[in-house]
Amino acid sequence: MSSEIVVHGACPHDCYDTCGLRVHAEAGVIRRIEGDPDHPTTRGFLCFKVNHYMERLYHPDRVLYPMRRVGPKGAGSFERVSWDEAMAEIGERLQAILAAHGGEAVLPYSFAGNMGALSGGALDERLWRRIGASRLERTICTASGNAALRWVFGKAIGPDPETIPSARFVLLWGQNPMATNLHEIPLLDASRRAGGEIWTIDPLRTDTARRYDRHLQLRPGSDLPLALGLGRELVASGRIDREFAQERATGFEDYRRLVEPWTLRRTADVTGLADEGIAELADRLSSVRPLLLRPGYGVQRQRRSAGAVWAIAALSVLTGAWRDVGGGLLMSNGGAFPLRSLAGPERKTRPINMLQLGDALTGLMDPPVKALVVYNANPAATAPDQAKVLQGLARDDLLCVVHEQMMTDTAKYADFVLPAAMAMEVWDLHTSYWHRYVQLNRPAAPPPGEAVSNPEFFRRLAQALGLQDEELQQDDLALIRESLATRHPWLEGITLESLMRRPVQKLRLPAETRPFVDTPVPVAGGRFRLTPPPGTATEPWQGAKLLPGEFHLLTPSTRETIKSSFGNVASLRRGHPVPELLMTQEDMRRLGVSPGARVRVLNGRGQVELTAVASDVPQRGTVVSYAVRWNHEAGGRNINQLTSQELADFGGGATFYSVRVKIEAIED
Ligand SMILES: Nc1nc2c(c(=O)[nH]1)N[C@H]1C(S)=C(S)[C@@H](COP(=O)(O)OP(=O)(O)OC[C@H]3O[C@@H](n4cnc5c(=O)[nH]c(N)nc54)[C@H](O)[C@@H]3O)O[C@H]1N2
Ligand SMILES: Nc1nc2c(c(=O)[nH]1)N[C@H]1C(S)=C(S)[C@@H](COP(=O)(O)OP(=O)(O)OC[C@H]3O[C@@H](n4cnc5c(=O)[nH]c(N)nc54)[C@H](O)[C@@H]3O)O[C@H]1N2
Ligand code: SF4
Ligand SMILES: [Mo]
């Protein structure tokens, strides 16, 4: 007789899709993970990565026991210790730091390794606020784009993706759903089957660009001029929705003035696109309905990120795209979930932008960062300006504690590595930044070894600091109940008890409800803002043109990993055993580099050695290395040696894709 159990889970990774999972376990061991056939957007299939999850779950790199460092930082030499011993020593050292330097000497560093409501922003945040730790600004991914959305619309919310099949023109703008949002593909395909047209705006010839109707291969970082040029076309020819642009929005006159210099000719010159392509796109925007603008996060990783998202958002207002079910602008639905914050009372301690971790660890004073606690993230591989980050992590006077599932590049620098459970082994509650379902994640099996969930780690850490307060020790199910305890009508009837019976439930917000048409515009005054966000500039435009010998480096997502996660799953890497640099054949010839040759890629911040691969993905002058490989695969460094701590124009976001490099052939 089989003792197999099947429980519902939610894929915890930082991915638009937040799929429903069916997790099969037997005798306390997980055996199989499948897509939930009843989850309306998952539809029973998973992506390339998660189809290989069994290899990640019980991987030999998995951290099973608390470990204390015995060798130099970064070397990865550890000895096993008990939880009691580890927590006693960590507690003692943290207390000494708090006494000598105050709470702000402690820096938590975390992001979206597990997106569950309990795995981040719950007991962890309560503890940081309680001890007055420095406040990490979690900017690495979407800060500028979301800030621009909030500026224009008041909220980061878009149409329900399940309405995509109704759209008749979809503009994928800096998004590559074939890699990053696979469950959007069937919805896009359905729109196309019903007569819709889909265009892609991307400097790279991605699988998504190849799949659909037209590809505008603009120069990297020239989205702001493109959006302004399109806006000018629409305004100058009077093809706008006047009620939306003038009555429902403020700032139309400012907007008109700013787009004025962006003639077709100038826009074409700066973006590298043909005049006709831009004019044809303006025609589509003015005439086809429902019109869906679908910017991805790829448009907001440049210096003028927020400006670009503002200008794209302005197009959705000018065209009145929001009037139709299936239309509007979909970038994030993160603002759709009215869950109660579990973070505890706010505290205004020193803010540290996570993109500037390198500077924070190497230069910050008053107080210096003396303790770093990392969870849900792998900054040694994913943070920009890696040389500085690694220099900071190597500091002998820094107490570094890492709660991890894998022996990552960051964990190797830790004084203590504590074993973290995987999502399939814990309770959690999941929302999504794309779809509109709330999901309960149940443990299917206990974690192996001595691994513990994030909330359990923070309960133990609080205890080690002598903090027994009830709110720091709350149990998992109480936390889930608390986060659902709002009177918001969109959550009506969604309780822990109802989720136990039905673990996937849609927000009580009908798909046909048109954001900002059927719901208010939550900007002061109730109108969209067409004025640009403060600090963003549309002029002067120095241009996206390259100096001689320079290349534009792009490091977008790939289907094989989620940033560094899955980087150690061998079967996913079979096609790409070594870190690569994709270049056009013409650029290879110009540089005298042959396919398969090793090249040095460098700029003022650092360098990395990669294998050159001839490809028709990039355009001339642009090179690509997918984000990101584990550092040890290229001599202890990865592509983030070359990226910068510089912040974007507004919202404090990243500039990962505004990178210039030189390339040298390595003579063997
Ligand atoms: N060059 C370049 N760099 C980039 C980007 C880029 O496009 N180009 N993109 C940036 C973006 S968009 C992002 S979001 C960041 C992401 O950067 P990170 O936040 O560092 O993301 P990951 O590399 O996925 O690392 C997540 C880590 O969390 C761990 N983890 C997973 N679940 C849990 C858990 O339940 N508990 C604990 N304690 N740990 C867990 C995983 O094992 C993994 O090591 O990278 C950024 N870096
Ligand atoms: N398989 C997989 N899925 C993922 C991830 C992953 O690493 N792998 N990462 C997850 C995370 S953390 C995030 S934030 C999302 C991100 O997913 P997306 O929103 O798709 O964003 P990116 O992958 O950053 O970039 C998307 C596209 O933007 C293009 N791009 C780069 N520069 C420019 C530019 O200047 N203009 C325009 N128009 N386009 C540009 C890139 O070439 C790329 O094709 O995906 C999530 N899902
Ligand atoms: S990574 Fe994304 S697409 Fe893949 S299973 Fe998880 S949520 Fe679904
Ligand atoms: Mo991200």
Q: How would you sum up this structure, described in words?
A:
This protein is an alpha/beta fold. Among the domains are: 207 residues, Dimethylsulfoxide Reductase, domain 2 (3-Layer(aba) Sandwich), CATH 3.40.228; 115 residues, Barwin-like endoglucanases (Beta Barrel). It contains 21 helices and 27 strands. Helix 8 runs antiparallel to helix 11 and helix 14 crosses helix 16. The model has no long low-confidence stretch (mean pLDDT 97). One ligand MGD binds next to helix 15 and strand 16.
Measured by DSSP, the beta-strand proportion falls in 15-25%
Please give the CATH class of the domain at 144-334 and 514-529: Alpha Beta
Radius of gyration: 25 Å
Kindly identify the CATH topology of the domain at 144-334 and 514-529: Dimethylsulfoxide Reductase, domain 2
Q: In which order are the strands of the major sheet placed? A: 5-4-17-16-15-6
Molecules bound to protein: ligand MGD, iron/sulfur cluster, molybdenum atom
Tell me, rounded to a whole number, the average pLDDT: 97
Largest sheet: 6 strands, mixed
Note poorly predicted spans: none
Helix content: 25-40%
What is the tally of helical segments?
A: 21
CATH architecture of the domain at 144-334 and 514-529: 3-Layer(aba) Sandwich
Shape designation: globular
The structural class is alpha/beta
Under CATH, the homologous superfamily of the domain at 144-334 and 514-529 reads Dimethylsulfoxide Reductase, domain 2
Work out the number of β strands: 27
Distance between the amino and carboxyl termini: 62 Å
